[in-house]
Write a structure and sequence with these properties.
By secondary structure, the chain is α+β, with helices and mostly antiparallel strands. It is built from 6 helices and 11 strands.
């Protein structure tokens, strides 16, 4: 079964390139991005892991932890990290889960329950569904799921943009419109009545329609 938004992210224990973790304990009070890869030493994923290392401070500034996953053991991840550093200019500065028993991939609905055997016998194409991005909140609930094909590199600037929206809308009763970015106007959530909205926005709001109530981004 594929995970749904709002469900609790499955907990697990696993080896990573930074030691063994229990996932929920590792998350702690942070937000988390878990992004998965079908196999080590694949070209698109190499660029992605390098880029995530470069922008890791942006995630850290937002209280977001990054963790990768690949359907290979951690010793291969460590070898792959050398290639990433040489070709992308930055080695991973976050843990990468070794999922050679496919446990995490199955828990998160990326591989079928019947998958088994030696990961070395499987090709990247066999694992092509392991190309997800999960954003998980401090409450351990799944807030966002992206699924990408192997031939298309992921847009992690978009992940940062969405996290800005998720964190803002978790704190304030607002929603963000199309192509919103930090600092842009927002929309008062539909669950908020006009009377309630006036308490927060005594100066009122712009309303091209009664159900579209636009206000400056709250801080």
């Amino acid at each position: 079964m594929a995970l749904q938004l709002g469900e609790t992210a499955p907990d697990f224990e696993a080896d990573t390139t930074e030691g063994r973790i229990r996932f929920h304990d590792w998350i702690g009070d942070s937000w988390t991005v878990l992004f998965s890869h079908p196999k080590d030493f694949t070209p698109v994923c190499t660029t992605e892991l390098g880029y995530m290392a470069k922008i890791q401070p942006e995630f850290e500034r937002r209280n977001v932890k990054i963790i990768g996953l690949s359907v290979d053991p951690t010793d291969k991840h460590e070898q792959w990290a050398n290639d990433i550093a040489e070709t992308q200019g930055e080695a991973p500065n976050y843990p990468i889960i070794g999922d050679s028993d496919f446990e995490v991939s199955k828990l998160y609905g990326m591989l079928g329950a019947d998958v088994s055997g030696d990961p070395a016998d499987r090709t990247a194409a066999d694992n092509q569904t392991v190309r997800n991005v999960f954003v998980i909140g401090p409450d351990k609930k799944v807030k966002l799921i992206f699924v990408y094909p192997m031939t298309t590199g992921r847009n992690f600037d978009e992940v940062l943009r969405v996290i800005d929206s998720l964190q803002l809308t978790a704190k304030h009763k607002v929603a963000t419109p199309v192509n919103w970015k930090h600092g842009d106007d927002v929309i008062i959530a539909g669950s908020v009545s006009d009377d309630e909205a006036r308490e927060t926005y005594p100066d009122g709001w712009e309303a091209p329609r009664p159900y579209i109530r636009i206000v400056p981004q709250p801080h």
